């Protein structure tokens, strides 16, 4: 039965093919018959094109092309340069390598200077130091325009001050830190506890006890020691915190966004209030300092 179906299918296909061929031949004959009734200008449109002219190939085929026979190079080996006599290639230093070399030399020079400074570090032999290091208070981040009299007025409320030593550079400019020696150790302890973070002339000072002569292994910041962070580390920490905050707030919901906006608005208002308080306190301190300086000048004139 499968063979019968196959024969029927082949017969059906052949009949369809013959029908299509008959249709095509009939259509072609019909078109040819119709062209004899057309004018010459239209009959020219149905004329076949001339055959393509034969052109010989410009180059010989790759298969028929003659090849140069391959020969050995043993007879030319003696003409080459001896590897043992070849001079070394010149070393070209790139910009990155030059910068790395300069950075390494700078680090080595800095390490040598720090080592020499540590060898010469002797805070107990400083002639300008205070008498008793255990009664001495260290104040840093002082405004460069703050005078010794202003510093005395701010810190004498904690006790009797024996000596104030403000550090200056070789050109006479203040370095931004000072040492205050009190009459009693309890007064120094009270100033250490209460004066840290106090604002003087628009800047908050940092208070600590003297460590150079009270701790044997203590080194200043310029010799690789010190305490706390520097401006560079503060900036790097701030950038890192800002990046973490940005990553955390990428997928925050709108409700949390509203809460964050409310918090940021309240923080901006609190900052503006704190700025206004700081300005008023700064103006008050400036007025007080100018008044005290005027009083000191009048007192000096009266003494003369």
UniProtKB/TrEMBL annotation:
<feature type="compositionally biased region" description="Basic and acidic residues">
    <location>
        <begin position="275"/>
        <end position="304"/>
    </location>
</feature>
<keyword id="KW-0694">RNA-binding</keyword>
<dbReference type="GO" id="GO:0030619">
    <property type="term" value="F:U1 snRNA binding"/>
</dbReference>
<dbReference type="GO" id="GO:0003729">
    <property type="term" value="F:mRNA binding"/>
</dbReference>
<dbReference type="InterPro" id="IPR035979">
    <property type="entry name" value="RBD_domain_sf"/>
</dbReference>
<feature type="compositionally biased region" description="Basic residues">
    <location>
        <begin position="263"/>
        <end position="274"/>
    </location>
</feature>
<keyword id="KW-0539">Nucleus</keyword>
<feature type="region of interest" description="Disordered">
    <location>
        <begin position="245"/>
        <end position="304"/>
    </location>
</feature>
<dbReference type="GO" id="GO:0005685">
    <property type="term" value="C:U1 snRNP"/>
</dbReference>
<dbReference type="InterPro" id="IPR051183">
    <property type="entry name" value="U1_U11-U12_snRNP_70-35kDa"/>
</dbReference>
<dbReference type="GO" id="GO:0000398">
    <property type="term" value="P:mRNA splicing, via spliceosome"/>
</dbReference>
<protein>
    <recommendedName>
        <fullName>U1 small nuclear ribonucleoprotein 70 kDa</fullName>
    </recommendedName>
</protein>
<dbReference type="InterPro" id="IPR022023">
    <property type="entry name" value="U1snRNP70_N"/>
</dbReference>
<dbReference type="GO" id="GO:0071004">
    <property type="term" value="C:U2-type prespliceosome"/>
</dbReference>
<feature type="domain" description="RRM">
    <location>
        <begin position="135"/>
        <end position="212"/>
    </location>
</feature>
<dbReference type="Pfam" id="PF12220">
    <property type="entry name" value="U1snRNP70_N"/>
</dbReference>
<keyword id="KW-0687">Ribonucleoprotein</keyword>
<dbReference type="GO" id="GO:0071011">
    <property type="term" value="C:precatalytic spliceosome"/>
</dbReference>
<dbReference type="InterPro" id="IPR000504">
    <property type="entry name" value="RRM_dom"/>
</dbReference>
<dbReference type="InterPro" id="IPR012677">
    <property type="entry name" value="Nucleotide-bd_a/b_plait_sf"/>
</dbReference>
<dbReference type="InterPro" id="IPR034143">
    <property type="entry name" value="snRNP70_RRM"/>
</dbReference>
<dbReference type="Pfam" id="PF00076">
    <property type="entry name" value="RRM_1"/>
</dbReference>
């Amino acid at each position: 039965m499968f063979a019968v179906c196959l024969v029927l299918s082949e017969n059906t296909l052949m009949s369809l093919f013959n029908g299509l061929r008959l249709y095509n031949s009939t259509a072609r004959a019909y078109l040819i018959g119709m062209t004899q009734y057309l004018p010459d200008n239209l009959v020219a449109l149905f004329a076949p094109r001339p055959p393509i002219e034969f052109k010989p190939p410009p180059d010989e085929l790759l298969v028929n092309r003659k090849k140069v026979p391959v020969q050995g190079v043993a007879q030319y080996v003696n003409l080459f340069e001896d590897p043992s006599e070849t001079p070394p290639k010149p070393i070209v230093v790139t910009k990155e390598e030059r910068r790395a070399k300069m950075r390494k030399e700078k680090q080595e020079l800095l390490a040598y200077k720090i080592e020499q400074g540590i060898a010469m570090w002797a805070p107990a032999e400083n002639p300008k130091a205070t008498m008793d290091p255990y009664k001495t208070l260290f104040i840093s981040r002082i405004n460069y325009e703050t005078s010794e009299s202003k510093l005395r007025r701010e810190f004498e409320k904690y006790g009797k001050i024996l000596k104030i030593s403000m550090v200056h550079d070789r050109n006479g400019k203040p370095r931004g830190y000072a040492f205050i020696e009190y009459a009693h150790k309890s007064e120094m302890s009270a100033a250490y506890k209460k004066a840290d973070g106090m604002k003087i002339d628009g800047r908050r000072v940092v208070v600590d006890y003297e460590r150079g002569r009270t701790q044997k292994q203590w080194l200043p910041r310029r010799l690789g020691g010190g305490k706390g962070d520097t401006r560079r580390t503060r900036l790097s920490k701030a950038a890192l915190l800002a990046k973490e905050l940005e990553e955390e707030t990428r997928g925050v919901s709108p409700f949390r966004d509203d809460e964050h906006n409310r918090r940021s608005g309240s923080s901006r208002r609190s900052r503006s209030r704190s700025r206004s308080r700081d300005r008023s306190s700064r103006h008050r301190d400036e007025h007080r300092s100018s008044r005290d300086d005027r009083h000191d000048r009048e007192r000096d004139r009266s003494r003369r």
